[in-house]
Amino acid sequence: MTEHAEHAEKVVTTDEKAVTTEKVVTNEKTEKTAITPPTHTTPPAKFSHGVRKGNILQVAGQVGFLPAVPGQPPTPAGDTLREQTLQTLANVKAVLEEGGATWEDVIMMRVYLTDTAHFAEFNELYDAYFADLKSVPAARTTVYVGLPAGLLVEIDALAVLG
User: What angle do CA 10, 12, 16 make, to 5 degrees?
Assistant: First the structure.
């Protein structure tokens, strides 16, 4: 939905010649679009795997679940940090692509690990995964103990397209 408001004002100079100037004020409202790739399950509550508004795409926290199988609960990619991290990155990428973005559009990533002992291994996996990225995003990694049992990592991303 786009709304435009236009204002015109008439300016009269001292020699009585009329000059008309136009001042255009644009107020555009952009709809939010929920993003759920076909590889993902429908969220269990009123939220989205991603939301795009204009050229901004926010990817909600993704975990290492394998692609969705209709009628089956989500399944972790494996028990190791490596398996879950690579699947989590694939899940973030799927939301980015469904929203029209790539890793190059990502300006911020937030990573949540469940164990401080995983930092070094995660950094190695992250560096290898993004080795060819032209411009790396800002990133923050923290320890978070609230993930469902068995899950080791969660990642969200903010992208600006264009």
Answer: 140
pLDDT digits (tens, 9 = 90+) for 48-74: 999 999 999 999 999 999 999 988 889
Asked if residue 81 lies in contact with residue 153, where contact means CB atoms within 8 angstroms, the answer is yes
CA distance 97 to 161: 11
Contact 121, 81 (CB under 8 A): yes
Does residue 9 carry a pLDDT above 90?
A: no
Strand partners, 11: 19
Please list, residue by residue across 99-135, b when 16 or more beta carbons sit within 10 angstroms of its beta carbon and e when fewer do: bebebebbeebbbbbbeeebeeebeebbeeeeeeeee
CB atoms under 10 Å from CB of 37, counted, come to 17
CA 146 to chain centre: 21
- Report pTM: 0.81
